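Hi everyone, sorry if this is the wrong subforum. Our group has a chain we'd like a structural model of before ordering constructs, and none of us has done structure prediction before. Sequence below.
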Amino acid sequence: MTSTDNFFQPLGGNEMPRFGGIATMMRLPHAQDAKGLDACFVGVPFDLGTSNRTGARFGPRQIRTESVLMRPYNMATRAAPFDSIRVADIGDVAINPYSLLASVDIITGAYDNILQHGCKPITLGGDHTITLPILRAIAKRWGPVGLVHVDAHADVNDTMFGEKIAHGTPFRRAVEEGLLDCDRVVQIGLRGTGYHADDFDWCREQGFRVVQAEECWNRSLEPLMREVREKVGAGPVYLTFDIDGLDPSYAPGTGTPEIGGLTVMQGLEIIRGMRGLDVVGADLVEVSPPYDAQGTTALVGANLAFEMLCVLPGVNYRT
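Answer:
Right subforum, don't worry. Here is the predicted structure as tokens:
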């Protein structure tokens, strides 16, 4: 059996009660930076790009709080990430709460630093604006990447109230800036009402595979993920998961909820279906704790972030 002496382990519930201690993600050690890490959890407490309900700035803290219940082994997939890669929580990016544009630059700089250490970030958001500056850093290292985007919304608006950068515009900007390999992009869960009947057609015109939520109703998404793996192929791919991709019955604590969404089980199928791909990073965004006093949305987000860790290259699976 492989020795785990060189890897960090989450703090167990028999070492410190789960309601005690410092709330890092899964009660992992807190590291000052990504040096020496294979993967890290990092928070971006930012919601200056929201258009309806704010509060996602509190997402990283609440996700960490709810993560204290989680244990180190994935009993469904038998993934053992903490026995095979070095993981820690490196804290939050110190955004500027008075300037969206300054914060965007700060985020890119922070991820430049993470990536220079060869570390793969799993981000706790924060609103969906943050994916743009993260992709800017990712593209510097990897070039244009594939993307699996789970969301109720396409987030390809040209502007919002005249602004080019907001939580509804990141993937339009990412296409324009050459950050995405558009033939390797899949969007899953899009739904709801729109401003125009052809709102999702811009995505298809770029080469994206658009999977509207109605295609997912009442079925397993394992067959879809076989198609996704074929489309994404062998190149680097980034996963971005907006919690509002799930139906609000599962995740009410978000800024722009839409009925008729994915189930938690389908969310798990999507992430687990990315096993074997060259995942270079991931984010979980738009958790807004003020709209879910029970913490259910943050608990779901914490578990999804763990599942993202479990599909990173280098993670071993116990047989």
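For your construct planning: Residues 25-310 form a domain with the Arginase; Chain A fold (CATH 3.40.800.10). The mean pLDDT is 96.
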